[in-house]
Amino acid sequence: MRPSRRGIFVPKVPRAIREAIDSYPGGICLSAPDGRVILVNRQMNEVVYQLVGHTVIDAEETWTALGAMTRSRGCEMVATHSSLRAVAGDGEDDERDDLLAFRMSDGSIWQLRRTVLDDDTMQAVQIVASDISDLYRLGKELSENNARLAAFQTRQKSLLANIVEVNREKELLAAKMRVHDELGRCLVATRRSLSKDSLDEDVPSLKRGWEEVIRNLSNLPSPTETGRTSPESELLRVAEMIGCTIEFIGEKPTDGLVLHLMYAAIREALTNAVRYAGADRLTVSMRRDARGYHVEISSNGRPPEMVVRERGGLGNLRRRLEEEGASLTIGYDPGVVLVLDIPVDCGADGSAR
Amino acid sequence: MTNVLLVEDSRISRMAIESGIVASDRYRLVASIENAANAEIACLRGKVDLVLMDVCTAEDESGLTAAEKIKRHHPEIKVIIMTSMPEYSFITKAKASGCDSFWYKEYGDEDLLDVCDRTMRGESVWPSSTPPMILGETDSRTLTDRELEVLRELAQGKKYEEISQDLGVTVNTVKYHVKNLLIKTGYRNAIQLVVDAVNKSLILPKY
After folding, report:
1. Which of B8, B41, B133, B193 to mutate to test the interface with A (most CBs of A within 10 A)?
2. Which of chain A's residues have a Cβ under 8 Å away from the Cβ of B157?
3. In the predicted model, is pLDDT for residue A89 greater than 60?
4. Residue A90: predicted pLDDT
5. Given this model, what pLDDT does residue A283 score?
6. On chain A, which terminus has fewer CB atoms closer than 10 Å, C or N?
7. How far is B57 from chain A (nearest CA, A)?
8. β-strand partners of A337
């Protein structure tokens, strides 16, 4: 070690050590914090020369020049600190290190890592250059594959969401075609017979034909054609069946998801009001403001003897509402009141039905 | 006279079943609805003795979920699950929900009214197995329970990491099952496999 002009000890490198370092396949440069070079090997000088047009004279200036370089002399920067971490996924990574990567004129990829070495006796800066062509290529492929997989998964989810519907439509169409063909055949045969003077001889075969149509109708594969009953009318009909009326007050939501959530809450409230409070009337008050819908569901049932515990149905309802960004509050007036607040943009995360 | 609640969202099936019940002198149709979520309400005041419950009903409401609620609060009400879907898990789920019987609309020789009679006499009528389904180069019966579970998770769009957490196995085990599924079915990738399984209703991710 010999004293430098600024009081920092710069080691003198014996020839044997220098030769050994020059034979190292990567580049290495040790410098004082102010940039004065302590040690630099041949490979590092060659890499830096290709990139910035000179060898390492002042390590700090060289690093600044490397960081500012985008493309020159057939070389280009391909990654900086953060992106390089993502692509290369270096297991020895240290957050305090600075990283740069360049594509050289021969197509190889070199990474330069700058590390500040600091202990009680001295401070130095180390720059290491490594050929990461294979690692970079694999990292890039991995990154591209991950992007492809993500897109693939998005497509898969969308496909699965639609495939059940497509199946239903296919089944429905096939069933309709079968019914149409069978009915048509019988109608034509009946019409032909009716146009004759006497039906007697055709009656047995016509009867068999129509019986066949009825049997086929009964044994039809079940196309999942849904009926025309609206969710509300069926709910009102079922409530009426058990001797309960549901009164709606205020402006009803029009959004499908809001309605779906509201009917789920009404079903839960109705079930509990009838089962535990002997109610025969449910009142649903609805109000809309700028934030969304405020819905209160109360009944004429007996007040609860203790605070309602959220198990099963109520717990599931809360989860269902909260998944869509809505909220549920349980109040007493003096019977149980379910209060829903459903924002205008509920289900905006793609969960809308 | 047995009071029947019919839950069926397919209009043609509903008409056929309704006409069978109406023609019978042992059963009375008290209501015919499309949405399984309304079934529990219909059962509240003792007007129903027997529920004929479809699995996939209006607004994607599950008949199995509704049946479980009905049996929990009204074990005296008999529930018969009906489906045309060869979904592999329906029989197991129906048994776990406490349902009394199970009837495939399109498979087997059982007549629905006969299943109703036997169920009302206290018998449980269950098909011996899920109808087999050709899946690629194999038959669905060759798939193990674990493979079917993995397939269901894939059909829900889950990643291998999520599947491993759900099933309590390692990611490598999930990959092993997926690989076996692909070898058995001959499909090139998981998406082909999942699409075919969902297309043939072997897996219905929403139920």
Report:
1. B41
2. 153, 156-157, 160
3. no
4. 46
5. 94
6. N
7. 8
8. A331
- Number of continuous H segments (helices) and E segments (strands) in chain A: 9, 14
Please state the pTM of the whole predicted model: 0.60
- A235-283: pLDDT as tens digits: 999 999 999 999 999 988 888 888 889 999 999 999 999 989 999 999 9
Q: The tokens of A273 are what?
A: 């009001």
**Residue B42 in contact with partner chain A when CB distance is under 8 A:** yes
* Surface-to-core class of residue A264, CB atoms within 10 Å of its CB (0-12 exposed, 13-18 middle, 19+ buried): buried
Eight-state DSSP code of residue B56: B
List the single residue in A223, A238, A313 with the smallest CB-CB distance to B31. Answer: A238
CA distances from B72 to A9, A71, B66, B67 (A): 84, 72, 10, 8
Whether the predicted pLDDT of B4 surpasses 50: yes
Are A308 and A273 in contact by the 8 Å Cβ rule? The answer is: no
Mark yes or no for CB contact A237/B84 under 8 Å.
no
Q: Which amino acid is at A82?
A: S
| Subunit contact B16:A217, Cβ cutoff 8 A | yes
Under 8 Å CB pairs connecting chains A and B tally to 114
Name all domains of chain B by residue range, CATH numbers in brackets: 2-120 (3.40.50.2300), 134-199 (1.10.10.10)
- Write the CB contacts of B84 (distance below 8 Å, at least 6 apart in sequence): A221, A222, B13, B104, B105, B106
In the predicted model, is pLDDT for residue A57 greater than 50?
yes
Amino acid at A304: P
Q: Do A241 and B159 touch (CB under 8 A)?
A: no
More confident residue, A41 or A3: A41
Report the gap between the CA of A332 and the closest CA in chain B (Å). 22
| CA A49 – CA A53 distance, rounded (Å) | 5
Using 50, 70 and 90 to split pLDDT, how confident is the model at B29? very high
Write out pLDDT tens, residues B82-97: 998 888 889 999 999 9
CA triple A71-A74-A75, angle to 5 deg: 50
Cβ within 8 Å of B, A 82-121: none
Q: How far is A73 from chain B (nearest CA, A)?
A: 45
Under DSSP, is residue B100 helix (H, G, I), strand (E, B) or coil? Answer: coil
